[in-house]
Amino acid sequence: MEPNALVDYVKSLDCIHCGLCLRTCPTYQLTGVESSSPRGRIYLMRAVAENKLEASDPHYREELDYCLVCRHCESVCPAGVRFGEMMETARAGAAKAAPRGALERFARWVGFQVVLPSRFWLSLSISALRFAQRTGLLRLAAKFAGARKEALLSMPAAPPASERRSLPERTPARGAQRGEVALLEGCVMPELFGRVNRASAAVLADIGYACRTARGHVCCGALHAHNGELEGARELARTTIASYERLGDAPIVVNSAGCGAHMKAYGTLLEDDPAWRERAKRFSKRVVDFSEFVAANAPADWRPHAAPGLGKLTYDDPCHLCHGQQIRSQPRELLARVSGAERVELANAESCCGSAGIYSLLRPGDSQAVFEPKARAFAASGADTLVTANPGCHLQWESGLARLGVKARVVHIAEVLAPSDPDSARANVR
Ligand code: SF4
Ligand code: SF4
C-alpha cells in the first residue's frame, strides 16, 4: 500500500513546528518526550508518508495508541492543524499496514461490529456486566486476567434494569410549545445513563420544546472513528443520517460531547462519497449540543432550581465540547442561571480527564495517570459536585474519585437543570 494512503500527508504539512501545543498535551506532560507530543506524532506521520518509517513500526503504533485524541492541541495551534482527523486516518492506516493479532481483531469485531450498533447486544452486555458485578464474578475474573485486571475492574457500574429505559418516541413540551427537536438517544446512553436522557428531554420540554427520538437508531459511530474503524464509522454515519432525515429537518440535540463533535464532522467523514456528501453536510448543520441549544433557546426569564444535596458545583469541560466544538461559555451561563446553586471554577477545566472513549479500558494505567491532576484540582476547588456533559467523562470522574477516596457527586448538566417534579430525572440524581 502507498505510504501516503496510510496517513493524512497534506494535513500534516499545516504544522509549522512552533511547539505551542506541547505544554497542553497530557501525554507529553507525563513523559516530556517529543514523540509523545502532537508535534512529534505529526513528524512520525510525515515520516511514514515519506517512506522513512514503516507504518507497522511498534514505536509509531505505540505513540498513536498513547494519544487520547483529546484535541487540546487543536485549540492552541496557530496553524489550524486538524489533529483529530489526522489521528483517525493514521490509526486506520496503521491497522491496514500491520493487522492486529487474531484475539484483538476478534474483540474489536465483537465490540465495534456486533455490540455497539445493536440495542439487543448492548442491553444483553450491560445485563451480563451487572450480573458479574453483583455476584462478584467480575472480581474473580479480574484475578486471572493478568494485564487486563485493571481494565476489568474499571468497567462502569451497570445500573438496574429499571433505570435502563428508552425515551418515548415523543416527549411533549410543558405548557405552550415553542418548537420541536430531535434528541439523540445514543448507544450506551440509554444503558448507562438513561436518567441523563430523561433529564435532557425534561429540560427541553421545560423550555417549550417537544422532543422526538429516532426509533431503531443506535450508534453514531464516534467510537469507531476515534479508534481507526473508519469504514464502520462511515456505515453508521449513513444509518444515522437516514434515521434523522425521517424525522424532518428539526435540530438534532446531542447530550454527549463526543457524539456531537463527531456528528458535526459527518461532512468530512463522507466527503469522498458522492451519494452521501451533501446529505452529510445538511445533517451536520442540524446537529447542536444540548447546552448550546438550551442556552440559545431558553426563555430569558427561565431559572431552574438547584436540586437538594448538590451543594457547590464545578464544571469540567469535556474535550470534545471545548476543543471539538468550541463550546465553553454556554454550560457556564446555564449553571449561572440555576437559583440556589453556588458554582466555582475548576483549575485546568479544559485538560483531558483521561477517559477518551474506550482509552480508559484499553490503557487504564495511562488513563489514571492523566486523571490524577484533575482529581487534585477538584479537591482544591472545594466543590461537592462535578458537572460534566459527556458519558465517558462522567464514568471517568465517578470511578476515579471513588478510587482515590474523594467523596463527591458527578452529574450531567441536564440533571442540574431538569425540573424537580417526581417524573423527572432530577429525582434520580445520585
Ligand atoms: S490529541 Fe491530546 S493527547 Fe493527542 S497529541 Fe493532541 S493534545 Fe496530545
Ligand atoms: S501548535 Fe500546531 S503548528 Fe505548532 S507544533 Fe503544534 S501542531 Fe504544529
Features:
4 domains, alpha/beta, 430 residues, 4-stranded parallel beta sheet, 50% helix, 24 helices, 7% strand, binds iron/sulfur cluster, Fumarate Reductase Iron-sulfur Protein, Chain B, domain 2
Helix % is 40-55%
Number of helices: 24
Ligands bound, unique: iron/sulfur cluster
Taking strands numbered 1, 2, ... along the chain, how are they ordered across the largest sheet? Answer: 1-3-2-4-5
Task: Label the overall shape.
Answer: globular
How many domains would you count in the coordinates?
A: 4
Query: What Rg is obtained from the alpha carbons, in whole angstroms?
Result: 21 Å
| Beta-strand proportion | 5-15%
Low-confidence stretches: 422-430
Largest sheet: 5 strands, mixed
Distance between the termini: 52 Å
Structural class per helix/strand content? alpha/beta
Q: What is the averaged pLDDT score?
A: 92
Sequence-ordered SSE layout with sheet pairings:
Blueprint: H1 9-12, H2 26-31, H3 38-49, H4 58-66, H5 72-76, H6 83-97, H7 102-115, H8 119-135, H9 137-143, H10 149-153, E1 170-171, E2 179-183, H11 189-192, H12 194-206, E3 209-212, H13 222-226, H14 230-245, E4 252-254, H15 257-263, H16 266-269, H17 277-286, E5 287-289, H18 290-297, E6 313-315, H19 319-325, H20 329-337, E7 343-345, H21 359-362, H22 364-381, E8 385-388, H23 391-403, E9 409-412, H24 413-417
Parallel strand pairs: 2-3, 2-4, 4-5, 6-7, 6-8, 8-9
Antiparallel strand pairs: 1-3
The chain binds iron/sulfur cluster (2 copies).
